[in-house]
Design brief:
Layout: H1 4-9, H2 16-23, E1 30-32, E2 38-40, H3 44-47, E3 54-60, H4 70-83, E4 88-92, H5 97-101, E5 109-110, E6 113-116, H6 118-122, H7 128-148, E7 164-166, E8 176-178, E9 189-191, E10 193-195, H8 200-207, H9 211-219, E11 222-225, E12 231-233, H10 240-246, E13 254-258, E14 263-266, H11 281-290, E15 293-297, H12 302-317, E16 323-328, H13 330-336, H14 349-369, E17 374-379, H15 386-397, E18 402-406, H16 408-411, H17 417-427, H18 443-455, E19 459-462, H19 464-475, E20 483-486, E21 506-515, E22 520-525, E23 544-545, E24 551-552
Parallel strand pairs: 3-15, 3-16, 4-14, 4-15, 7-10, 16-17, 17-18, 19-21, 20-22
Antiparallel strand pairs: 1-2, 2-13, 5-6, 6-13, 8-9, 11-12, 13-14, 21-22, 23-24
Helix pairs in contact: 4-17, 7-8, 7-10, 9-10, 13-14, 14-15
Length: about 550
């Protein structure tokens, strides 16, 4: 059996001229980046007079070691739509080097449902993440330089929330002391790093509507506080112009293709368990302008990625999805039902029955909280039995939700035709899309609404430090911003060990911080960290390159 990278390397891609033509993008709005990638001028969103296409969100159940195949299904659905004569375009996130070299893997799909060139996409791609890291670290350098040069703004060196970043899993950088070595080497202080995809600059880039909006948002970043508790912004440090200059190319979405030649915008990559987990607004809008069906995804389970896509991204960008695809695998559902990983390939009706509530809760949230049409896509494995598939169909039928088998890993677009036909049907249905909370409510009320409406928890608790931060953020006028919850991706609760559909739990918020440029308040729960670490045997150990430049071991 071929690996993902072997399948991708055996494919002959279409020229970028052909892909741009399929998307209807005039030559003056795209620039080649090598032979198989391109940058697209975001101004085409405004210049194109075509009506917006239907927006389809692909989300999933909670991830397990058995996998769900959300990106693979997203790509296969887009190719399946092309197979039935529909003009589809994909909009995906860029992978982070942290998971690529760590444990989770890349974000280019898999099997015969991939975006290519997968090596470039999973590694440096077009350099967007490097530009984001440079802009982030420029602000950090200017902030510390301001303190070193006399601290005219009276910055409190013990109250600096702005962190340096690097796009790598490196636990050694979680807590550091810098500025040591003498008076001329900086001001000694406790500091920390975060991974680039958890940075506010990443979130800002993905939520911006253009270069001037990007600059305005960067200027509003709260990077420090004065000794009397007043926020210090990037504008106060005169940093916004230079930071935006570093991002002038990164703001333009990247155009690539699927293995079957479907145009794909791959742009931006905030983590969904710590950030808002969606590709850029500009890429999504370009997909809607260039396709009759724009297929996009949100990170991790629907309680994280889909919640933030709907409550943050759609709210800010004025987007309304036409339908939602919830991806699941029989194997992952059995894992949620207590089946050990070694036995997931064996038929186990009882474990599947016990795991099904996880899927049903995600489905019910999409139907009854956000009021959107839903289809469940079973990412099919050869070990799935007819009895297991029938059980999932029966459970979904009770919610008036159809199940479509997606055999896209093995068959590409052909394996996505059943799903594509159901998506087309659902997109023609009217919906009454709504949010899970009112942004005008206070921070605590919004957190309580998310806990009860989306997670189905009993109560919310704020630690004493979080209570103090709540009062401070409210006094500063940040209480009307949407909420971005940083939470484990493995459970509806803030405890990763509570699988399935837990009840009677309490969500504890240990820290609140404002991302004023991105336009939301971040609530940290559990032991979630913004700088992951590498596993005992990182994926980087398997990756290699030969004398001809051919990369191996990359999935």
């Amino acid at each position: 059996m071929k690996t993902d990278i072997e399948i991708a390397q055996s494919c002959k891609p279409e020229s970028m001229e052909a892909i741009a033509a399929k998307a209807g993008i005039p030559d003056e709005y795209w620039t080649p980046y090598g032979r198989s990638m391109a940058k697209v001028d975001y101004h085409y969103v405004e210049k194109c007079d075509k009506p917006d296409g239907k927006l389809v969100l692909v989300t999933a159940i909670h991830p397990t070691p058995a996998g769900e195949g959300k990106t693979t299904t997203t790509v296969g659905l887009a190719d399946g739509l092309r197979r039935i004569g529909k003009k589809s375009v994909v909009a995906l996130r860029e992978p982070s080097l942290g998971p690529v070299f760590g444990i989770k893997g890349g974000a280019a799909g898999g099997g015969y449902a991939q975006v290519i060139p997968m090596e470039n996409i999973n590694l440096h791609f077009t350099g967007d993440f490097h530009a984001i890291g440079a802009a982030n670290n420029l602000l950090a350098a200017m902030l510390d330089n301001h303190i070193q040069q006399g601290n005219a703004l009276d910055i409190d060196v013990k109250n600096i929330p702005w962190k340096r970043c690097v796009d790598m899993n490196d636990r050694q950088l979680r807590y550091v002391i810098d500025g040591i070595g003498g008076r001329l080497q900086g001001v000694p202080r406790e500091d920390s790093f975060q991974i680039t995809v958890a940075s506010e600059i990443m979130a800002i880039l993905c939520l911006s509507s253009g270069i001037m909006d990007l600059k305005d948002r960067i200027g509003r970043i709260v990077c420090a506080y004065t000794r009397d508790g007043k926020p210090v912004t990037a504008n106060d440090l005169h940093a916004a112009g230079a930071m935006t200059a570093l991002l002038k190319d990164a703001i333009n979405p990247n155009l690539v293709q699927t293995l079957e030649g479907t145009p794909a915008f791959v742009h931006g990559g905030p983590f969904a368990n710590i950030a808002h987990g969606c590709n850029s607004v500009l890429a999504t809008k370009l997909a809607m302008k260039t396709g009759d069906y724009a297929i996009t995804e949100a990170g991790f389970g629907a309680d994280l990625g889909a919640e933030k896509f709907l409550d943050i991204k759609c709210r800010m960008a004025g987007l309304t999805p036409s339908c939602v695809v919830v991806v699941a695998t029989i194997r992952a559902l059995k894992h949620h039902g207590g089946c050990p990983k070694a036995s997931l390939s064996e038929e186990n009706i009882e474990a599947l029955r016990a795991g099904l509530p996880n899927l049903m809760r995600h489905v019910d949230n999409m139907l009854n909280v956000y009021h959107l049409p839903v289809v469940v896509a079973i990412n099919r494995f050869t070990s799935d039995t007819d009895a297991e598939i029938a059980m999932v169909r029966d459970a979904c039928r009770k919610r008036d939700v159809n199940v479509a088998l997606a055999d896209v890993w093995a068959k590409g677009g052909e394996g996505g035709i059943e799903l594509a036909e159901e998506v087309v049907r659902l997109c023609e249905q009217p919906n009454s899309f709504s949010f899970s909370y009112d942004a005008e409510d206070g921070i605590r009320k919004k957190l309580e609404d998310i806990t009860r409406n989306v997670y189905h928890g009993d109560s919310l608790v704020l630690t004493k430090p979080a209570e103090k931060q709540l009062a401070e953020l409210t006094a500063l006028g940040f209480d009307k911003l949407p909420i971005c919850v940083a939470k484990t991706q493995y459970s509806f609760s803030d405890d990763p060990s509570l699988l399935g559909a837990p009840e009677g739990f309490t969500v504890t918020v240990r820290e609140l911080r404002v991302s004023a440029g991105a336009g939301f308040v971040v609530a940290l729960t559990g032991d979630i960290m913004t700088m992951p670490g590498l596993p005992k045997i990182p994926a980087a150990e398997r990756i290699d390159i030969d004398a001809d430049g051919k990369i191996t071991g990359l999935f």
